[in-house]
Amino acid sequence: MKQINLNDGSLWLPPPELTISEWADKFRRISPEASAEPGEWITSKAEYQRAIMDAVCDPLVERVVMMTSAQIGKTEILLNTIGYYIDQDPSPILVLNPTIDMSEAFSKDRLAPMIRDTPCLSEKIQDSRKRGSENTIRHKKFYGGHITLAGTNSPASLASRPIRILLCDEIDRYPVSAKDEGDPLSLAMKRTQNFWNRRILLVSTPVLTTTSRILKDFNISSQEEWCVPCPECGEYQPFEWERIIYREVSEPVMKCKKCGRFFNEFLWKSEQKNGKWIAANEEIKNIRGFHLNSFASPWGTWLDLIKQYEEARINGEESMKTFVNTVLGLPYENNENEIEIDVLDSHREKYKAELPDGVLVLTCGVDTQDDRLECEVVGWGKGKESWGIEYRIFYGDPGQEEVWNNLDDFLRKMWKYNDGAELGISCTFIDCGGHFTDEVYKFCKPRTRRNIFPIVGRGREGMPSVGKPSYNNRRHVPLFALGVNTIKGVLYSRLRVDRVGAGYCHFPIGRGYDKDYFKGLLSEKMVIKRIRGRDTVTWEVVKTGIRNEPLDTRVYATGALELYNPNFERCERRRKGIKTPTNNVSAKKIKRVPTGFFGGGVRL
């Protein structure tokens, strides 16, 4: 409430009736940490944001769905919504991210600077760093409400306070279940049931057509597309990739779908001031859905986006999926066709030496069985082009030292190029999920400086390829959780690449790569199952009796590469004998890094 003084006394007036976009234009300040153009917020710079923000505070709208590409201002829309409800309509607010870490990063890097630099907010929320403040990174109080920042991996944060304003970011990356508590999005929505005037904002870049949460919500919404008038005939139409021409002309142009004229990026974007959202389902009023791609964004050029497409076209399915998701703002139609063994057999070739010239880094994956250890050494080059180097089986009881000694000798081997240069294994992942967990820990403990680590596979959807290490085991060795479903999806995409180059998988003739190996490598397929009321990606064995160790070892070797994270450009310069400029980091400083950890391809 705002207090004013009049001759007849002091009166209390309600806050002015503003929409979110009007509030942002009047009060919001952009922080220097968040933009190259700090200062006053101006909605007209990206006019498409106006209707989205104002829909959130529309009393006739309960849910707003944003299925969009990256870099169109999604985060700023979330921030303006938060600021509006703190300042104009105090309410309990929940911001839900895929993980707690992402929520904390949002709070520190985006929310805190906005509160600091926007005066009407800084006077309402006390800085969490000040003595006596009740506020924390993940929970902030203000008169009439509070804001909680939660992650779907923390069920406790989804099961307490009632919430009126629910803001859910990147929902296509939410797991099926918040641990064992159920679907995190459903849990969060239940917390809004006590409010007749609740508001729910669902935001995400989509991922896969078959499992996309945001697509399903968009399909039951008004399904609105951002449209601008043709500079010639005035026909309203969206920015569409299919109508953009760039190879036959000096600069990219988009064809008008009515008059057929071609206009460049500047002319189309200059019409955005007259743009409007056009709904496919006009009869739906309480759920407004918005779709937008990067070709409408003022923060990128069509030439940059076309360059991303050309790179994705060359790099294969995995990169094309990223382009479709992050540039077109559409879910990817995943290719479910099974890969034929004969197709991979055509990838076999005779290497001139132990290591082909393109190999710059070696990793290894080891699978533990009751009577043997199976392992694969994989070579990696630029663009994550890969070469199978050797598939080896060490028979013996893993409960005895002999088989582990044989493995150790194998992991110490230096592999030779045709010119006589040598390369060792940079990182090794060993599965400890079987009957010999302690033996794996015992083997890895003294070898962490050689980057040999135990791992445990996790099939939960949405997990990162490699999680943070845990030391909660009897030998206190760093244990990494591997998102095996995530890596399998990436691996099968690479196996479909049919042109030598980025992502392509080479295999040698011999060296353990026989027909049984390829059967094992292709032993599983991706299926969609209904789990807890939601379509979920899982991986199942194609045919009983086929061993899947070749698939597991390749997954582990791929995970080892993700952890090692090499700088391939630097590795290539080193391979060619070109000196790499030093960064003045002394050996003593490097030694302070925890045992076995590295970054940017620097091997400790």
Topology at a glance:
Layout lengths: L1 E5 L2 E5 L6 H8 L1 E2 L8 E2 L7 H9 L6 E6 L5 H14 L4 E6 L2 H18 L1 H4 L16 E4 L2 E7 L13 E5 L14 H7 L8 E6 L8 H7 L4 E6 L6 E3 L5 E2 L7 E3 L6 E3 H6 L5 E4 L7 E6 L9 H14 L1 H10 L14 H5 L2 E2 L11 E8 L3 E9 L5 E10 L5 H11 L3 E2 L5 E2 L1 E7 L5 H8 L7 E7 L21 E4 H12 L9 E4 L6 H7 L2 E8 L2 E8 L7 H16 L3 H8 L11 H5 L13
Parallel strand pairs: 5-10, 5-17, 6-8, 6-9, 9-10, 11-17, 18-27, 19-24, 21-27, 24-25, 25-26
Antiparallel strand pairs: 1-2, 3-4, 7-8, 11-12, 11-16, 13-14, 14-15, 19-20, 20-21, 22-23, 28-29
Number of domains: 2
Number of strands: 29
Stretches where pLDDT is under 50 for at least 5 consecutive residues are 1-11, 582-604
Helicity level: 25-40%
Q: Oligomeric state of the chains?
A: single chain
Q: Class of the largest domain in CATH?
A: Alpha Beta
Structural class: alpha/beta
Count helical runs.
18
CATH architecture of the largest domain: 2-Layer Sandwich
CATH topological fold name of the largest domain: Nucleotidyltransferase, domain 5
As a percent range, the share of strand residues is 15-25%
Q: How does this model look, in words?
A:
With 604 residues, this protein is of the alpha/beta class. It has two domains: 25-223 and 280-303, Rossmann fold; 341-591, 2-Layer Sandwich (Nucleotidyltransferase, domain 5). Helices cover 28% and strands 24% of the residues. It contains 18 helices and 29 strands. Strands 5, 6, 7, 8, 9, 10, 11, 12, 16 and 17 form a ten-stranded mixed sheet that branches. Helix 1 packs across helix 3 (74-87) and helix 15 packs across helix 16 (549-564). The longest helix is centred in the N-terminal third of the chain and has 18 residues, at 100-117. The radius of gyration is 28 Å and the shape is globular.
